[in-house]
Design a protein that fits this description.
- This protein is α/β, with parallel strands linked by helices.
- Helices cover 73% and strands 11% of the residues.
- It is built from 22 helices and 15 strands.
């Protein structure tokens, strides 16, 4: 991926910026810290993969902006592409992918961001993790691979090589193996149970045949009994018809008897009603006279009711007017009481106002004292405003002097402690020098052993490769032996044919083919024994080499600790050489500090300023106690102002009372006159007198009205008797006609009853002459029911046996299928078990890492030789001896690891003991080698290299070598971008991308 153009809008520290990479091969991105250099590179990763250092997606948007947009054009595999990624704050993003054609850029965007991202990865063949671990050496992460523990390094390398997919395949293979194993065990249990069930098949068939015979016999017996039952049921049916006719005639006879009785009862009731009506009709004259008297009384009661209504209305209106007059008078009396109460309330107010006005002279004297006290307080307040800043300044100066004094004392104690420490350290110089010489001797011997160990390891690898070739040849010859053995078996059969041309053989040709095959078999077998003998010899040599490797490796186990001790001793000796000069400097500084404390001449400016402030404060002569007394004096005379306000209010209120009092007295006189007039001359009083005269004119008497009502209630019975007379006159002819109709109907019913009695006697005689077959039918039905239950039981049992036979047939088919499935499951279990071992850590993954490390080591050393002038060399160790509790044990178990041994002109030592510049050169070489390896494995050419802040740890010579190395490897890349904040380094690059931060955001300028 080669960058062509980058356009930014509101991305991190950039508002609007664009950068054209055309013609750039090796360029430097320079600028001060925080200017936005790394953000320029983050824009590329965010545009392509949507990844950046921001924890939240909206954090990539420039502060205060609502939308971010990055437009990136790049070249990959001789083809130009364009990626545009935008995002609105608080919403989802949009991704566009385009390819350059002769007519411009054509869209390749998929349906959605994820689909478009997959298209981008398909074209560039590089994901984000591979990019940042290969082409992009990110800021602060150059030593990420080296600072990890050996076991973690191997895990990181596996992740970079994407070997975790084999872990997933291993788990899937294990799961599949466990599933097939469980299924096989389940099938074995099922097959064992099925075999037991299939053994009952013959017994079930015999039971079925016997049951079918018994079922046929029962069916024949049941058919004969059904014929007997049908003949008896015909006889019973005839008798049932006669019984039904008899019951019908008896029911009709009973109904006719009941109708005759009912008609006779109804005749008796009508005769009684006729007698009652005739008695009422005989009293007709008396009833007419009593009804006319009742009507006269009713007319008199209606006239008195009209007078009662007029009397009631007049009385209610009179009561209403009386209540209205009473309420008017009570309202006026309430107003009179309120006005009188207001007049009485003015008297205590007049007395209180007079008392307040008598104190005016005393208040004026107190006001004069208050004005004087306030004038004094104002003067002291002004003086306090001058003194307060001076007092604060004096306190600050005193605090500064105390801090300086404490600092001098602390520094003096620190110098004494450091001086004692240096004196004790200088006494150990001779012991450290002797220990350093001893360590140097041991390390030199171990380095010789290490070189020999390397040779033993190379010899072991050579033997292992030879063993692998022997094993491959052994398998090939074993296969050939099997084929020859199969040919001999084919030739031993009668009428054998040629194994090659498949034609029939005569005796001569058969002997030649057999002899030739036996000779080939003998030669192959002899050669196989040779391979096996060589394999055994090589295996013994490998065992001896392993034993020797373990012994030497065990001797070299303290090598790293000794090398670390040597570095520590060298550092201690160097520090002791500087001890004497530091002791002299510390003694001089200590004497100077002690003299300053005795004389007190520290911080002379602050002490002089403090003395001037004290003299000026004495001249001002400000006293806080006098100021407090002045404040209390003002507070003591402040009551005079309050009393003065009260006197002014009292004078105003006295004038208001003098005007209010005559007004209230006039209102009282008017209300008293109004009350007397309403009692006699008001409209309401006149209406009351008129209503009293109207009630007297009506002349209504309640005693007369009550006596008339009593007489009317007594005469009300004649109204009821008159209505009964009218009803009797209407009903009497109807009842006489109804009595005659009932008498004729009763005679007809008696004649029909006699006819029915004759028919009942005839049917009864026929029933007595015929026999009743009910008992025989019941007994025969019981026998048939019993036979049917037995038959149902047999049929049910037969159905169950047929179902069992069908199940056993299905079970036999299932048994055969499950046997085949069991063989398949066992075979699949073995296959997935072998796949799980192959995909495991000790299988394909270990083999891939073993194959990759030599290439990585060679590439790293080639780059490192350029960076360090052939001074540094690295070696990757994948196995080492494990720890053993027995120190004298000669052999130890080998464990997997990924140690990185680094050697320089002084020998092999730990990574931590190298300087910052050396460490960076080592990291840079390993990272660059990893970059090439990962890009090669991803199927993409590594055309772009980005180095972010790689010069900060280098000295001048290291920077020159790093720049020279970059120029050396420049031909391997289409574009190299280097990020630095060191101004003097940008001059080493002809092309520079300068980044400056302004108030309008970061700005980019290109100079070539």
């Amino acid at each position: 991926m080669i960058p062509v153009q980058l356009i930014l809008k509101n991305f991190l520290s950039y508002r609007d910026a664009s950068l054209d990479f055309s013609g750039l091969h090796t360029a430097c991105i320079c600028g001060s810290n925080g200017a936005g250099k790394s953000s320029l590179l983050e824009a590329i990763t965010w545009a392509i993969w949507g990844e950046s250092r921001a924890g939240v997606e909206d954090d990539v948007i420039h502060s205060g902006a609502k939308e971010v947009r990055v437009d990136y054009i790049f070249q990959c595999n001789q083809q130009k592409y364009r990626v545009i990624r935008t995002r609105v704050r608080g919403a989802s993003g949009v991704l566009e992918f385009q390819i350059e054609t002769t007519s411009g850029f054509r869209a390749l965007t998929g349906k959605g961001v994820r689909a478009t991202q997959d298209l981008i990865l398909q074209h560039i063949k590089l994901d984000y993790d591979t990019f940042i671990n290969s082409a992009y050496l990110r800021q602060g992460r150059a030593d990420e691979f080296m600072i990890k523990r050996p076991s973690e390094r191997k895990e990181i390398l596996a992740e970079l090589l994407k070997l975790n997919q084999y872990d997933q395949l291993e788990e899937r293979a294990k799961d599949a193996s466990r599933q097939f194993k469980g299924r096989a065990e389940e099938l074995e249990r099922t097959l064992e149970s099925s075999q037991i069930q299939l053994q009952q098949r013959e017994v079930t068939a015999a039971q079925k045949a016997e049951l079918e015979t018994q079922l046929n016999q029962l069916q024949q017996v049941q058919a004969f009994e059904k014929i007997q039952l049908q003949s008896l049921q015909l006889v019973q049916h005839q008798r049932q018809n006669w019984e039904q006719q008899l019951n019908f005639y008896r029911q009709q006879q009973q109904n006719l008897t009941q109708d005759s009785d009912r008609l006779q009862q109804e005749q008796s009731a009508i005769q009684t009603q006729l007698s009652d009506l005739e008695a009422i009709l005989n009293q007709e004259p008396e009833i007419h006279n009593g009804f006319r008297h009742y009507q006269n009384l009713e007319l008199q009661e209606e006239a008195l009711a009209t007078k009662f209504q007029e009397y009631t209305r007049a009385t209610a209106l009179l009561q209403q007017k009386q209540q209205q007059l009473t309420s008017q008078i009570h309202e006026l009396e309430r107003e009179l009481q309120q006005v009188e109460g207001q007049l009485v309330a003015l008297e205590p107010q007049e007395r209180e106002i007079q008392e307040t006005l008598h104190k005016s002279a005393e208040v004026e004297a107190a006001l004069a004292q208050l004005i004087s006290a306030r004038r004094r307080l104002t003067q002291l307040d002004q003086l306090q405003m001058q003194v307060s800043p001076l007092l604060q300044q004096r306190q600050n100066l005193q605090t500064q002097l105390d801090k300086v004094h404490a600092g001098v004392v602390a520094r003096l104690e620190q110098l004494q402690a450091r001086e004692n420490q240096l004196k004790s350290s200088s006494q150990r110089q001779q012991q450290l020098q002797q220990a350093a010489r001893d360590l140097e001797t041991q390390i030199s011997q171990m380095e010789k052993d290490k070189v020999y160990l390397q040779r033993v390891q190379e010899k072991g690898q050579e033997r292992r490769h030879f063993m692998e070739r022997l094993q491959a040849q052994e398998r090939e010859y074993e296969r050939l032996l099997g084929e020859l053995e199969q040919k001999l078996q084919m030739l031993r059969t009668p009428d054998a044919i040629c194994p090659l041309c498949e034609r029939p053989l005569d005796e001569h040709h058969w002997n030649r083919v057999v002899d030739k095959t036996k000779d080939d078999y003998k030669d192959t077998e002899d050669q196989l024994w040779v391979f096996r003998e060589q394999k055994a010899v090589s295996d013994r040599e490998i065992q001896l080499l392993r034993q020797e490797y373990r012994e030497i490796h065990h001797k070299l186990s303290p090598y790293d600790n000794l090398r670390e001790q040597r570095g520590q001793l060298a550092a201690q000796l160097q520090s002791i050489k500087d001890t004497e000069q530091e002791l002299q400097q510390l003694a001089t500084e200590r004497r100077h500090l002690e003299r300053s404390l005795e004389v007190g001449d520290y911080a002379p400016d602050q002490q002089a300023e403090l003395r001037q402030l004290d003299e000026y404060l004495q001249q001002l002569n400000y006293n806080e106690q006098d100021h407090a007394l002045a404040r209390s004096e003002v507070e003591r005379w402040r009551w005079a102002e309050i009393k003065q306000g009260q006197i002014k209010d009292a004078a105003k209120r006295q004038a208001q009372i003098a005007a209010r009092k005559p007004e209230l007295q006039g209102n009282i006189a008017q209300l008293q006159t109004k009350i007397q007039q309403d009692k006699t001359d008001s409209d309401c009083a006149k209406q009351i007198s008129q209503l009293e005269r109207q009630i007297a004119e009506i002349g209504y008497s309640s005693e007369q009205h009550n006596s008339l009502r009593q007489a009317l209630r007594q005469a009300q019975s004649w109204q009821l008797r008159y209505q009964q007379l009218l009803s009797a006159q209407q009903q009497h002819p109807q009842l006489q006609q109804r009595w005659q109709d009932l008498d004729a109907s009763r005679r007809e019913r008696l004649q029909e009853r006699e006819k029915l009695l004759t028919q009942i006697a005839n049917i009864t005689e026929q029933l007595e002459q015929s026999a009743n077959p009910t008992e025989q039918i019941n007994a025969l039905e019981q026998k048939i029911h019993t036979r049917r239950r037995e038959l149902d039981d047999y049929i049910s049992h037969l159905g169950r046996l047929e179902q069992v036979m069908l199940q056993l047939a299905n079970l036999q088919t299932q048994y055969e299928e499950q046997q085949q499935e069991l063989q398949t499951c066992k075979q699949q279990q073995r296959v997935y078990q072998e796949l799980a071992q192959a995909f495991g850590k000790n299988g394909i993954q270990a083999m891939m890492i073993e194959n990759v490390l030599p290439q990585l080591e060679a590439e790293t050393n080639q780059l490192l030789s350029r960076l360090s002038a052939n001074q540094l060399h690295v070696q990757f160790i994948t196995q080492k001896a494990g720890r053993s509790s027995n120190a004298k044990k000669k052999s130890a178990k080998l464990i997997d690891t990924l140690d990185i041994l680094i050697a320089d002109s002084r020998g092999t030592r730990a990574y931590e003991t190298y300087s910052g510049g050396e460490a960076f050169r080592i990291n840079f070489a390993i990272r660059l080698a990893l970059a090439k390896l990962l890009a090669q494995r991803a199927g993409a050419a590594l055309q772009l290299l980005i180095i972010d802040e790689g010069f900060g740890t280098q000295d001048a010579e290291g920077c020159d070598r790093l720049i020279a190395s970059i120029n050396t490897i420049a031909s391997d890349f289409a574009c190299i971008l280097t990020v630095t904040h060191m101004p003097h380094l940008k001059e080493a690059f002809q092309a520079r991308i300068e980044v400056n931060k302004t108030q309008q955001g970061s700005q980019v300028s290109l100079s070539i």
